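Supplementary Methods S3. Complex input for the adenosine-5'-triphosphate-bound model.
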Amino acid sequence: MASLHALYGGTFDPIHYGHLKTVEALAHEVGLQQVTLLPNNVPPHRPQPEASTAQRVAMVKLAIADRPLFTLDTRELERETPSYTVETLEQLRAERGVEQPLAFIIGQDSLLSLHKWHRWQQLTALCHLLVCQRPGYDRAMPTPELQRWLDRHQTHNVSALHQQPGGLIWLADTPLVPVSATEIRTRRHQGLACDDLLPAAVIDYINQQGLYRP
Ligand code: ATP
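Predicted complex, serialized as structure tokens:
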């Protein structure tokens, strides 16, 4: 059977260590060989990114240049329509076939609001969900019904993630990395340094492009 392939969507405005370090730890925890980053085409439920599409892609490329775990897939940026994760996963499932184990990686904040995503209940029909912890977000779901949904899908068996094509949720024991893109943009607007929050090559690019200026 083909190895478990994981996908990671985000606005990446900019990409930072909350993405990179948590996913590297997750890869170690569950045995991922490859993680494909899928930058969003301005998600419908969120404000417009501050960086342009080309700048977000350039920052992702710089961040992963020396991180062989990651590859980049820009398919969502090539669409005219809003990027719905469920539609991208349907496309990937069609390309990879029904047997291929696929997983979509999210942070705990995204798990707690997953029920607001377009056709969210289809997500586990298409792939596994791998959830990285994020500081400040509850481990319990917001309603008993959503908690029951989580309990029904949660697994503690790593091998099952590799053996089944999808349908399971893994709550990872990844380190808490207290970084968000919002915090980085805010610090930059205030003229504060962001060393240690994102790779130096990305900071250099941000400076060179005059992004997130005060
Ligand atoms: P913003 O602050 O602009 O909302 P963000 O930092 O949350 O952005 P996104 O690119 O929107 O970053 O996030 C993509 C994915 O990364 C989401 O699933 C989110 O939960 C996850 N994520 C982001 N930061 C962290 C973090 N520090 N720890 C764990 N997961 C994270």
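Residues 42 and 48 are 6 Å apart (CA to CA). The chain is about 40% helix and 15% strand.
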